[in-house]
């Protein structure tokens, strides 16, 4: 005799297949944890972005949609100047740290030399050392060697740029090194065998292979430089303010939606660049 | 054939990697225009030796002379040899045409000449329509032909191939064996291949150097290696062989008399003298098998213990009355041959003294 509830039970069993012991992604508790984590991570940022459209000066309560604070931010000279500075520094820092990082990566991949392990450790130091320590150290260093203070733009950004290069290039080196580790040495040997010199081999075989890693590394260096606050704060001066530092000082005055607008722009730029960088990493893994 | 002068001379070459001796005092003379094979089990040093000819490794001792020129200290990009690598090493970011042109482009060949030679090269390996394809659009066999064309357009004196057929499936392998042999005969340049597959070496090469643990055991033609192996290793490595222990008991007019375990007295034709403990060897296909005692110099009776059927041939394993284990290979010449014997049957084996080998080691 088929009891109605038993029929329902068997239907339920058929449609809800049993998850295997290792299918963690199907476990409810895991899904809850992930949801809460994402919420805690992104709720503040999303709130920030939403409230940049808020038509209220004090920006505590939502009072209507407006784009006027984006307009205000655009017309804010100080903010604009800070943005230009940030871009300039990021641009120069990216180029130099990509070159240095790539050279370090090739050297560590190719050669064995006394003290190599120590060098690898030292090179990774900027990643490990707390930013505030690096920031203070840079500040003291530039003061100690008497780094000229009143240089014309863009040279007055040089201290910040040097600091950015110092902490960016290890990241580039790691990304490029990871890409190089998948290189088939026989390609290099084939190139030599066919008559190419070391330099020709580097230019025509190794460099094209490195390209995805170089692009990913460069984009990483760019975002690191653009977003940096701590180290920049210590190495910047009144005439060399960057975007994050300027936003910080705006916050200290008043938290108008202008600040939100500026921050939203920064977040969006960073997301776009990171997405592009990840796109370049993907084909690198498949190749 | 044409000139038989030595084009590659490997003189006393030893290669050490720290405590490991990869190649131990190798002496080989490769003749111009021949298809030469370095054959041996994994780790015997054949690939290391090939890489030393290419210039990718330098010998620790000894020297390599190519076309009369001492190659010591000369880097690979300045040697008149080119290599086809085991992984083919086709440049993934270039088209087929760019790959084939690479060796010519980096050495400053004029563009017009590059175009002509690339086209010739692709025609040679039957890849004429593939100039603009990318390597990831090609099959393994096609990529190998790109690597081949790329090396051949450089017109090297010697072409080196590292395990050229190992990555191909059985049918393709057979086809490539013939293709490579034909290609070599047509172009006439010296080919040196490295392989662990004896069928490859036997079917393609004019002469083979068998290597073991860094040492060259024997250099001979395929027929010479198969029918007159110099020692037990070569006899056993190439094809199958039956080995019987024995002791020399005297010399005869036509050979050496050996007291063989399980066979009695056998007179084996042998040049030179021999004494002490030896091994008698006979190839399985030289042994006749039947229900009755055959007309042969050496005969022995036994029981069939095992049988491997391969369609065209059969391998039969027989244990003689004296406890000797011998293997016999025969063709399944008629459709009823497969029913001829059963496990446990009593059979007679026989072979001629002329087909018996005397191996001192």
What does the model show?
The complex is a heterodimer of chains A (287) and B (361). With 287 residues, chain A is an all-alpha fold. Chain A folds into two domains: 1-40, no CATH class; 70-286, MetI-like (MetI-like fold, Orthogonal Bundle). Helix content of chain A is 74%, strand content 0%. Chain A has helices at residues 4-15, 28-51, 68-75, 77-110, 116-123, 125-128, 131-144, 158-180, 185-193, 198-227, 230-235, 243-253, 257-286. The model of chain A has no long low-confidence stretch (mean pLDDT 86). Chain B is α+β, with helices and mostly antiparallel strands. Chain B has two domains: 6-236, P-loop containing nucleotide triphosphate hydrolases (Rossmann fold); 240-359, RNA polymerase II/Efflux pump adaptor protein, barrel-sandwich hybrid domain (OB fold (Dihydrolipoamide Acetyltransferase, E2P), Beta Barrel). Chain B is built from eight helices and 20 strands. Chain B has helices spanning 46-54, 96-105, 111-124, 140-152, 170-187, 198-204, 222-227, 232-237, and strands at residues 6-17, 20-31, 35-39, 61-66, 69-70, 81-84, 158-162, 190-195, 207-212, 215-220, 242-251, 256-260, 264-268, 277-282, 288-290, 298-309, 313-320, 325-331, 346-351, 357-359. In chain B, strands 6-7-8-3-9-10 form a six-stranded mixed β-sheet, with helices on both faces. Chain B is elongated. The two termini of chain B are 35 Å apart. Chain A binds chain B through residues 184, 186-187, 189-197, 200, 204-205, 208-209, 287, and chain B through 54-56, 75-78, 81-83, 85-87, 89, 91-93, 102-103, 106-107, 147, 150-151, 154.
